[in-house]
């Protein structure tokens, strides 16, 4: 059964006592062992894989060397025939036969290596998959455990801290009040700054037409007109 | 980053116009928990724990018994639906408490962590405000 399914069942059961482990320590050890085993298997498979791949290359090299020898001796046999030396040509042909027999043996070995490589690659893939899967599940188990432990630590703090026992409604009201207070303070600070700079008073005076007011264009025009008329 | 290191860094740090207070709840031989208070809102502390893979930030919202009994299903459904749109955080239930949480990789930078904490704190307040209609008076 997957860990998630186990967790699901345990949570659904709801009978779990606080702090009771969903997966026992033994279960965790088994998981860790499985991961370690898979990692060992992976190491072994990778080591074999490199060895077999090296042997495959060696065998391929031998086969191509034999191919070269065969071609070379076929040329020699041709030359012997051209010179009318049938006996020598036959001897060379026998040699070619030996080369071909050797090549056939190597080809058989090569096929074995190639098959082995396919198998080992599959094993590596499976081991990697298994490690990843077990690690994912182990993470879930460990997180669940650590959240449980943390919850216990938090609960013991909450219970000794009476302010945290208040209801969510009261908490929210207090937070909102604090935010409002802060806004008010900010507003008050601005007000105070405006007062000290006298901005506020000046603005009020200007509105009442007292103090340094900007001359209105209508007044200027009236002044000019008065000058012309005089 | 170790939790005590995080605590020290948070103390002298301010981001997004927000400051942090934090203290470590040492838990002999067990899981250490860092309690973080964002922007003075000590009603909604964030509890940070670290495992091999991830850093969990959890804030407890309200207890199951604060929910109006006949609205529980609707509340659960709503929280499930909100899980995707809510940025960086998700809703959860731990024992009999509803919570909001975020999980980070243990390789997260300090900036990532503070951003998570600030977002989680904001989300917690917003969430609490949104669900009050489901809670007992």
From TrEMBL, chain A:
Belongs to the PspA/Vipp/IM30 family. Residues 176-200 are annotated as: Disordered. InterPro entries: PspA_VIPP1 (IPR007157). Residues 28-55, 110-137 form a coiled coil. This is Phage-shock protein. Keywords: Coiled coil.
Automatic annotation (TrEMBL), chain B:
It comes from the Bacteria. Pfam families: DUF2170 (PF09938). This is YjfI family protein. It comes from Pseudoalteromonas shioyasakiensis.
